[in-house]
Write a structure and sequence with these properties.
Number of helices of chain A: 5
CATH topology of the largest domain in chain A: Arc Repressor Mutant, subunit A
Number of strands of chain A: 3
Helix content of chain A: 55-70%
Largest sheet of chain A: 3 strands, antiparallel
CATH superfamily of the largest domain in chain A: Winged helix-like DNA-binding domain superfamily/Winged helix DNA-binding domain
Oligomer: homodimer
Distance between the termini of chain A: 35 Å
Order of helices and strands of chain A: HHEHHEEH
Largest interface: A-B, 34 and 36 residues
CATH class of the largest domain in chain A: Mainly Alpha
DNA sequence: TCCGTACTTTGCCACAGAGCTATATAGCTG
DNA sequence: CAGCTATATAGCTCTGTGGCAAAGTACGGA
């Protein structure tokens, strides 16, 4: 998943699918061609990566492959990223309030080693 | 940013910083050693990547480098990922409501704009 | 002043993966 | 059936990056 999203070509494809709901392999390939100058087989390979990561699903329509975004993995990604900062900003927020109410004069290093002060509302 | 988060070692470091608020290079290095069996210079390289991506900042405390998470980039990542699915689920949600009631009485975000996909190819 | 500690930097190797061309597969269409 | 369209796969090259050991830098303490 993280790997799937690491490439700008694939992100561009994801964004396109997010905007248009769905697109054929050809449309996505042409988009990639315009924006990144890559050839069709390369685009196809990127689609394979997205498929195997579960970010997109494809259905067959005659010779066409219609791709569609799968929200699960992207929501997981969003959740993970948000979680990393929520802990932190929660702490900082609590700390800031604490500093504001008590004293606005402490070092920038808050000594997390000995005491756990996370439960302060 | 996306690159910074693409590596499991680096994600592990981020998670550690998210939990503990901050950590020295040595602590992060040892964590990576335990979990991934990598050596200290390799861990240092990963920290460099995180630093240059703006995901972490470091301050000097004698010989120690204290690392701390920078919420901005991670929030951006979370925002991007969430945005990709919000379009989509919004559309799907609207469609579901439409199928459910068909009267289209809910005039909130239930505006599918113009018929976007009639003239495909 | 010299040593040990804590990291970073450097130089190297190996492998993953992104790009290409050429080819295969599948399904319409004439 | 031939041939065109749409997409995937195969096979190859080349760059990027993760890994290591060894050397460099910076600082505190005996």
């Amino acid at each position: 998943m993280f790997q799937a999203v690491a490439d700008p070509v694939r992100r561009s494809m994801i964004e396109r699918l997010a905007d248009h709901g769905e697109a054929t392999a050809g449309e996505l390939s042409e988009l990639a061609a315009q924006r990144f100058g890559i050839r069709q087989p390369t685009a196809s390979k990127h689609l394979k990566v997205l498929r195997e990561a579960g970010v997109v699903t494809s259905s067959v329509d005659a010779q066409r492959r219609v791709y569609r975004l799968e929200p699960g993995p992207l929501d997981d990604l969003a959740g993970w990223a948000a979680r990393q900062t929520r802990f932190w900003t929660g702490r900082l927020d609590a700390l800031e309030r604490h500093l504001d109410a008590e004293t606005a004069e402490t070092a920038e290093i808050t000594d997390p080693a000995t005491t756990d002060e996370g439960t302060s509302s």
